[in-house]
Design a protein that fits this description.
With about 475 residues, the protein is of the alpha+beta class. It folds into three domains: about 160 residues, FAD/NAD(P)-binding domain (3-Layer(bba) Sandwich); about 150 residues, 2-Layer Sandwich (D-Amino Acid Oxidase, Chain A, domain 2); about 80 residues, Orthogonal Bundle (Arc Repressor Mutant, subunit A). About 30% of the residues lie in helices and about 25% in strands. The longest helix has 20 residues. The structure holds flavin-adenine dinucleotide.
Length: about 475
C-alpha cells in the first residue's frame, strides 16, 4: 500500500511526485505509456510564460506566475537548460488598444518588468521583425525550457528520492480497499494507495470516471509545429507572439532551449487524441508566422510534429479534491500554461495531500539531480578530462548533435531509464539533428540491444508494438 499514487507521468505528474517526496510519503507514479512525457508534455512550445495572458483571478494566472518564479531554481537543481530570453507580443496599426489591455492584465496578474516598446526599439531587439509590427508588449520574465527534458529530470529526481514509476500501467478501474484505493491496469497489474492524484492529461476525464466522478469534461485541440535546424538559431532571440484571440495564443516563433527555431502551433479541434500533422497545418503556420518575422528560413525545416491540448469545460485548471469521491485529488484540464505552472502545481498538490495524511517533511530529500554531461557544450579541456575518466565519451554516435556513447549509456542507467529509441532521443538528442536519425539510428539500436540483451525484433521506437524491424536477424 503506497501513500500516494499519481496517475500520469507528464510534467504535472512528475512534479507532483517530486514535491510529494519532499514529505515523508511512499509515492508511485502509474503511466500508461512505456516512458514518461508521452502526452502534451512531449510536444509543446516549451515557453515559460510570463503570465500576462491568463484572466486575472484564474488558477491559470496564479500557477503561471508562481511556476515562472520557481523555474530558474528548479532547472538549476535538475540540471535542465532554461533561458529567460523574454517575449514580445506584436501589434500592428490599429491594435494598440488590445496591446494596452494585455499590458494591464499582466500588471493585474503581478507580472514584473512589462513595458510597451515602439517600432524602433522593437527593430533593434529583433532585426527580422515583420514590417507590419508597429509596437510590442515586452515581458523580460518570459523564458524557454526543454519540456520533455524538464519532465524526465523531475521524474528522475523523484525516483532518486525513492518514488516508484510503473510504466505500461493504464488505469482502467478503481475499487475501494481498506484505507484507500486499488487501481487495476489494462495489463492485469494492480497497485493500492491511500490517496490518488489524477494527472492524466487528456485521460483525466476518464480517470475521474473510474472513481464515479463526472464533474468535468476534457476536450482535445491539436497544435502542429515546424522545427528549423540549429543553423537558424540566431534568427530570433525573443519568443514572438501575435495578439491572443479566442482560439488561444496563436502561432508563435521562438528559439528553443537547444538552439533550434520553433514555429507553430496551429489550433485544431479534435474528436479524439490525434498527433498527425497536415499540409494545411503547415500552410497555416507559414501564413501566420510571416506576420511576425520576415524572411523566415522555412527551407531549413528539419521536422514537424503535433501536440494535443487537453482543455476542460471549466476553461481553467482543475486543482481540487474530488467532491464525488474521498481520497481523489485532481490536477486536470492542464492546458497552456501548464508547462510553466507544473512546479507550482506539484508543490500545491503535494501540500494538500501531505496535510490530509498528516505527513511530516522528508529530511533526506535531495533536490539536486546528478549532473549530466552535455558533451557538445564542453570545452576541449573538459572533453579530454571526461574521456580520460569515461572512454565511452570519446565515441560520437550521433554526428549532427554530437552525442557520445557515454551519454547514451548514462541515459539507460539514470532514472527514469531510457528503454526505446525515442527514450534515448529525448534524453540525449541522438537523432534530433539535421539528418533526423538517418545516420545514428542503427548505432543506437545496437546499444539498446546490448544494454538490455534484446533480440533485434524486440527493440521498439517508443514501446508497445512499435518494433523497428520485423522478423529475421541482423
Ligand atoms: C500544442 C501545445 C503547446 C503548448 N505550449 C505550452 C507552452 O509553451 N508553455 C506552457 O506552459 N504550456 C504549454 N502547453 C501546455 C502543456 O504542454 C501542458 O499543460 C502540460 O504538458 C500538461 O501536462 P500533464 O502532465 O497534465 O499532461 P500530459 O503531459 O498529457 O501527461 C498525462 C499523462 O497521463 C497518462 N495517462 C492518461 N490516461 C492514463 C491512465 N488511464 N492511466 C495511466 N496513465 C494515463 C498519459 O499517457 C500521459 O503521459 C502546450 C500544450 C500544447 C498541446
Amino acid at each position: 500500500m503506497y501513500d500516494v499514487a499519481v496517475i500520469g507521468a507528464g510534467v504535472v505528474g512528475a512534479f507532483c511526485a517530486r514535491e510529494l517526496k519532499k514529505y515523508d510519503l511512499d509515492v508511485v507514479v502509474a503511466e500508461s505509456a512505456d516512458d514518461v512525457a508521452a502526452g502534451a508534455s512531449r510536444a509543446n512550445s516549451g515557453i515559460v510564460h510570463a503570465g500576462f495572458d491568463a484572466p486575472a483571478g484564474s488558477l491559470k494566472a496564479k500557477f503561471n506566475l508562481e511556476g515562472n518564479r520557481l523555474m530558474e531554481e528548479v532547472c538549476r537543481e535538475l540540471g535542465v537548460k532554461f533561458y529567460r530570453n523574454g517575449s514580445l507580443v506584436l501589434a500592428g496599426k490599429g491594435q494598440e488598444e488590445q496591446l494596452r489591455a494585455l499590458f494591464e492584465r499582466g500588471i493585474q496578474n503581478g507580472v514584473t518588468g512589462l513595458r510597451i516598446v515602439g517600432r524602433e526599439e522593437l527593430a533593434a531587439m529583433e532585426p527580422n521583425v515583420a514590417e507590419g509590427a508597429q509596437s510590442a508588449l515586452y515581458a523580460p520574465t518570459g523564458g524557454i525550457v526543454c519540456p520533455y527534458g524538464l519532465t524526465i529530470a523531475a521524474m528522475g529526481n523523484a525516483m532518486d528520492n525513492g518514488a516508484a514509476l510503473e510504466c505500461g500501467f493504464k488505469a482502467v478501474s478503481a475499487e475501494r480497499c481498506k484505507g484507500g484505493w486499488t487501481l487495476h491496469a489494462a495489463s492485469g497489474k494492480t497497485l493500492s494507495a491511500r490517496i490518488v492524484i489524477n494527472c492524466a492529461g487528456y485521460g483525466s476525464e476518464q480517470v475521474a470516471a473510474l472513481f464515479g466522478d463526472s464533474s468535468f469534461r476534457i476536450g482535445a485541440r491539436k497544435g502542429e509545429y515546424m522545427l528549423l535546424d540549429r543553423s537558424c538559431g540566431g534568427f530570433v532571440r525573443h519568443t514572438m507572439f501575435s495578439l491572443p484571440t479566442a482560439a488561444g495564443k496563436g502561432v508563435l516563433l521562438t528559439p528553443t532551449a537547444d538552439g533550434n527555431v520553433l514555429v507553430g502551433p496551429t489550433s485544431v479541434e479534435q474528436a479524439e487524441y490525434d498527433t498527425s500533422v497536415r499540409r494545411e497545418g503547415f500552410d497555416d503556420i507559414r501564413a501566420k508566422a510571416c506576420l511576425l518575422m520576415k524572411d523566415i528560413p522555412f527551407s531549413q525545416t528539419i521536422t514537424s510534429f503535433a501536440g494535443v491540448r487537453a482543455y476542460s469545460d471549466r476553461h481553467d485548471f482543475i486543482v481540487e479534491w474530488s467532491a464525488a469521491c474521498e481520497g481523489l485529488f485532481h490536477v486536470a484540464g492542464i492546458e497552456s500554461p501548464g508547462l510553466t505552472s507544473a512546479p507550482a502545481l506539484g508543490a500545491y498538490a503535494a501540500k494538500q495531500v501531505a496535510e490530509k495524511l498528516g505527513a511530516g517533511k522528508n529530511s533526506t530529500f535531495d533536490p539536486v539531480r546528478r549532473p549530466q554531461h552535455w558533451f557538445r557544450s564542453l570545452t576541449d579541456e573538459e572533453k579530454n578530462e571526461v574521456i580520460a575518466r569515461r572512454p565511452e565519451y570519446g565515441k560520437i554516435v550521433c554526428r549532427c548533435e554530437e552525442v557520445t556513447l557515454g551519454e547514451i549509456v548514462d541515459a539507460m542507467r539514470t532514472n527514469p531509464p531510457a528503454r526505446t529509441l525515442d527514450g534515448i532521443k529525448l534524453r540525449t538528442r541522438a537523432g534530433m539533428g539535421r539528418c533526423q536519425s538517418g545516420f545514428c539510428q542503427p548505432g543506437v539500436f545496437d546499444i539498446l540491444r546490448s544494454e538490455y540483451g534484446l533480440q533485434a525484433d524486440e527493440v521498439t521506437k517508443n514501446g508497445g508494438k512499435s518494433f523497428v524491424i520485423a522478423g529475421g536477424e541482423l
